Amino acid sequence: MNNRFEEYKKEIVTKKVAAVGLGISNRPLVRYMAKLGVDITGFDSAPYAKLESFIKEFEAYDNVKFFTGPDYLDNLNGFDVIFKTPAIRPDVPAFMKEIRLGALMTSEMEIFIKMCSAKIFAVTGSDGKTTTTTLIGKMLKEQGYKVWVGGNIGTPLFDKLDEISEDDMVVLELGSFQLQTIHDKSPDIAVITNVSPNHLDFHKVIDEYIWSKKNIYRYQKSGDKLVLNLDNKVTAGFKNDAAADVIWFSRKTVPENGAYLDGERILYYDNGEEIYLFDKGTILLRGMHHVENYMAAISAVYEYVDVENMAKVASSFTGVEHRTEPVMKVNGVWYYNDSIGSSPTRTNASLHAFEGKLILITGGYDKKIPYDMMGPLIIEKVKGLVLVGQTAPKIKAAFEAEKEKTGNGGDIPVAEVNSIEEAVIEASKMAVDGDTVILSPASASYDMFPNFEVRGHVFKEAVRNLK
User: What's the predicted TM-score (pTM) here?
Assistant: First the structure.
């Protein structure tokens, strides 16, 4: 029995609770609290019609209420605890008013981390979070552990706390939005894949974004583990304020402790002792960024997983959907779906996973991040450019500036379109037998789609329609 969670349940039923935002993370929370008998109210800006099927689940509950629509926060009054969805900033006026009156602002993820009795591995970073999280989960499962994988990867785990035992392993993907509300306790093993400018449409400044990322290890203690990318300037500096034991991964520098790429070999250095793991070629996924993801995962699980089980995962795992995913070959041209590529750094890594130049479909929602690196990248790796979405003008401007600066890139055709379907058609016109077309937007999806998964599915359907 999880005694800590049992005590929490006794306490929360005495509180007036608000769940603000009724998306993926808070719905299981509301269901659990309703059955527990908590006085809980759900709030969401969406109209009632969009939430009707969910709200109707609670018709028999006297302890559950809802407020929806554009003025939904007008009724946020007199609450003891507010569970905030990750997509809403914590400093909106309605929240600040309640906090001044004594309300506790939290999240289902913060309470999960505090109450979970199992060992928690958690992964954050600007790029590579989902693949690294998935790899850690697969390696632990291969070793024979019962593993729960969730968080930002799409599976809330709060309502599973009664089922998770202290002998299990929990693996969480945590984005900066979720990490904003983490206080007092950080995961046992924290992994930061890399940090580059991202989500500056949500975070006011880059320092706030970095501050949020640091919450994954801010409350760790001696004996906990912090896995850091030695090759990333920002993450390398995190060692200076870490209380946990730092484990590194690198493909450029030999670390004192952690995974390292030596030519074609992936090694682990354990206090100066060199341990061979497997060759880079064992990994089925394309690109050096995936080698880095593997090294991050290895550094996280090394104490818990045998080398042969790490190698089994490397030789069998074919990747996560929407991440440099091969779709199909049409008229001699391969099409790849990299819809997860929501930043220039991710698109850069994806393009460099391929030999030669590609036809690139790029652009999307503007997260207010810089696109300067897209100019040199296009000239180096692109033979045909298709632009779509809000960031298309920024990417085009970066390309034009680099052309003017270097005198190169004048032979790269550019098409500007209004939809992913049009983009696929234009890319197919540019392509000849043997070419590769890749969707890697370097931008989020919210200008045209609810998420990157929908964008990826639309792309794949458009490719299938070519045939």
Answer: 0.85
